[in-house]
């Protein structure tokens, strides 16, 4: 059932007032939903810092945004490749050095449906390494800066968490024995959600003012699959994107913008479109299935992630 907590149209950016003096850091913001979120924040006079892999695409995105919002629009980028932990560490150190305030870190970037097994430079399966491990380290390194602003961490998940094996394949994290594009993608997005919900648990009672939210964009016309999926997957998605089942990237950005700005949200929740199959419709609180916060699996994943990345969180 569609959630109309925010009215019949659900949450929209019309609810936003001025965001002047706010700073939003977004991964993967040179295209798709991340770019649209940047546009919305800039339209409300916020500062936006994009963390993107491609310097050329980032430069073009900054130019486009300054053309739209004026030369004084406060938008910049720091180059970061989530699949390379050395790059993540360097980018986080640059942000700490140059960005004094973070009101929300939006973990938006992802790769999807990689057709054959690929490993990151650190030896991780590419989807898990990029979508989960990279963000795990980034959030940890920027946590103190976010906490100083009583800010938020927003994890952009996927309804794909409901597919595949619905848990973490701890005995073969790289899927050497049974690699298949869709189940591995589903596990990577489930891992991101489990990280967020475990972080909520670990923050409870610490007095730290960081809020952690999880959302998904529904079925949105972004470049995600076209940049990492196989040929057949890209063709199927292109055809589907021409139907009413797929909404615009602009609407796909609404959940992450909401989670970065709206007061009174629940933490143990999944926000996104709440219409038919949750692919579109009014943005609000959707269905969250309990395998996403299986405590035993979440806690084990946290420990595995610290060991894999060589990064230990300190609260």
Write a brief caption for the model.
With 315 residues, this protein is α/β, with parallel strands linked by helices.
What does this structure look like?
By secondary structure, the protein is of the alpha/beta class. It is 41% helix and 11% strand. It contains 10 helices and 8 strands. It has helices spanning 32-43, 55-69, 85-98, 126-148, 181-203, 224-228, 231-240, 249-252, 254-261, 295-309; strands at 23-27, 47-52, 75-79, 104-107, 152-156, 211-215, 271-273, 283-285. It has a 6-stranded parallel β-sheet, sandwiched between helices. The chain is globular.
Helix residue percentage:
40-55%
SSE class: alpha/beta
Given the structure, what is the number of helices? 10
Shape: globular
Describe the strand arrangement of the main beta sheet, using strand numbers: 3-2-1-4-5-6
The number of distinct β-strands equals 8
Model regions low in confidence, pLDDT < 50 over at least 5 residues: 236-244
* Biggest sheet features: 6 strands, parallel
What is the topological layout?
Elements: E1 23-27, H1 32-43, E2 47-52, H2 55-69, E3 75-79, H3 85-98, E4 104-107, H4 126-148, E5 152-156, H5 181-203, E6 211-215, H6 224-228, H7 231-240, H8 249-252, H9 254-261, E7 271-273, E8 283-285, H10 295-309
Parallel strand pairs: 1-2, 1-4, 2-3, 4-5, 5-6
Antiparallel strand pairs: 7-8
Helix pairs in contact: 3-4, 4-5, 4-10, 5-10
């Amino acid at each position: 059932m569609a959630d109309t907590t925010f009215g019949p149209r659900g949450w929209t950016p019309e609810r936003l007032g001025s965001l002047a003096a706010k700073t939003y850091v977004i991964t993967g913001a040179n295209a798709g939903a991340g770019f649209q979120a940047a546009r919305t924040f800039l339209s409300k006079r916020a500062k936006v810092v994009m963390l993107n892999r491609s310097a050329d695409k980032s430069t073009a995105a900054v130019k486009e945004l300054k053309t739209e919002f004026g030369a004084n629009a406060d938008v910049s980028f720091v180059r970061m490749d989530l699949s390379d932990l050395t790059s993540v560490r360097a980018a986080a150190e640059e942000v700490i050095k140059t960005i004094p305030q973070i009101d929300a870190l939006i973990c938006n970037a992802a790769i999807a449906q990689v057709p054959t097994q690929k490993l990151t430079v650190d030896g991780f399966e590419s989807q898990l390494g990029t979508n989960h491990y990279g963000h795990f380290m980034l959030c940890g390194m920027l946590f103190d800066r976010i906490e100083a602003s009583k800010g938020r961490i927003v994890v952009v998940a996927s309804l794909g968490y409901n597919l595949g094996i619905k848990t973490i394949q701890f005995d073969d994290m790289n899927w050497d024995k049974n690699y298949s594009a869709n189940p591995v993608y589903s596990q990577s997005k489930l891992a991101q959600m489990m990280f967020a919900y475990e972080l909520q648990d670990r923050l409870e009672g610490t007095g730290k003012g960081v809020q952690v939210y999880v959302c998904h964009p529904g079925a949105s016309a972004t470049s995600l699959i076209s940049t990492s999926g196989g040929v057949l997957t890209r063709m199927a998605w292109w055809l589907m994107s021409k139907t009413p089942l797929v909404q615009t990237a602009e609407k796909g950005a609404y959940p992450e913008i909401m989670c970065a700005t709206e007061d009174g949200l629940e933490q143990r929740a999944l926000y996104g479109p709440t219409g038919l199959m949750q692919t579109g419709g009014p943005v609000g609180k959707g269905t969250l299935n309990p395998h996403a916060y299986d405590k035993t699996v979440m806690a084990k994943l946290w420990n595995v992630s610290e060991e894999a990345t060589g990064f230990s969180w300190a609260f």
